[in-house]
TrEMBL record:
Positions of the UniProt region annotated as Disordered: 219-249
Source organism of the structure: hydrothermal vent metagenome
Coiled coil regions, renumbered to chain: none
Record protein name field: Uncharacterized protein
UniProt-listed InterPro entries: ATPase_NBD, FtsA/MreB
Amino acid sequence: EALPKLVSALKLRGKRAACAIPSPLTFCKHVQFPKSDGMPPEILADTMLTEQLGRDASTLVRRLIPVPGAEHASASKNEYICLATGREIVDKLMKAIRTSKLDPVGMHSEFEATLHAFHYLNRRESDKDRVTLYLDMGGGQTQVVIGHGKKLVFARTIGVGGLSLDECLARTLACSIEQARKTRLAMGDFIPHATPTPTPAPAAAAHADEGGVMVAEDRRDDATPQGLSPEVTAIPRAPTAPSGGSLHEPLEILTDETGMCLRYHDTMFPNARVGDVVFVGGEARHRGLCQHIAQALRLPARVADPLSRIVKADQSHTIDLDLTQALPGWAVPVGLCQCPTDL
């Protein structure tokens, strides 16, 4: 209901709209189906969804993403990522877009959109073997995405986010959740703004060839790739919680669950281990949080600032958005702008 008013206030020039299905409303599961039993994997996926969700598969919108090259104990099975949501959710999103007098051109999962936001880092032929973990730490949960270059090979949602941290802090400080969040934000230990692209390009051309060339040069010079912070362990350390508070429980769950995701990936691809971490999501602004997770995972890590790669020639139409600060929470919107328009 609020979208038409927001679109009107922004005074958008274009009419094309791509949409991400909210991750809390998205079913995501890795599944294995036999390679040759005469039954299409789509039929097997629908049967699985009916059993798991307790509703007819015809009431769902389902996407089955193959994971080629995955190894298993049984060589007779193929690996897939199964994504699904209620058809009524898609209908509601489509209605909101059309009510806003926009033309819907894409409907994607947040997992896919996140990966598309970083295609510019994986433009070279050799980058198809580059294995990166993307951690999208939001308000309600954390999304785990692993990509081999531009290819999505792992996706999962962990039920730990900013709210979990605030609830834990409220218990340890004996205060309200609202006060706990204000206390966390007041720490001010935010990730610094990413260095802008030396030669800015329009938003629609954020994935142009020039960007790929710059990334290749950055890597040869061992410099920080555009749109990313320095390695978080190289930045002065910051606490994960304010004085007198503790976030031990939710952070232990988050790091343990993420470690399980890495181990599952390693069983599928024993010769392709994750080499680095990219933090996105609103909670990724907190330096101490990212440093704690990177240290627990024992991987080099950076925080992404996707909007820093986009020209900000006119900031007069932005609403409640401070473009001088790092904004890792914008990975999904930026990625949507580069997703296929396949509707």
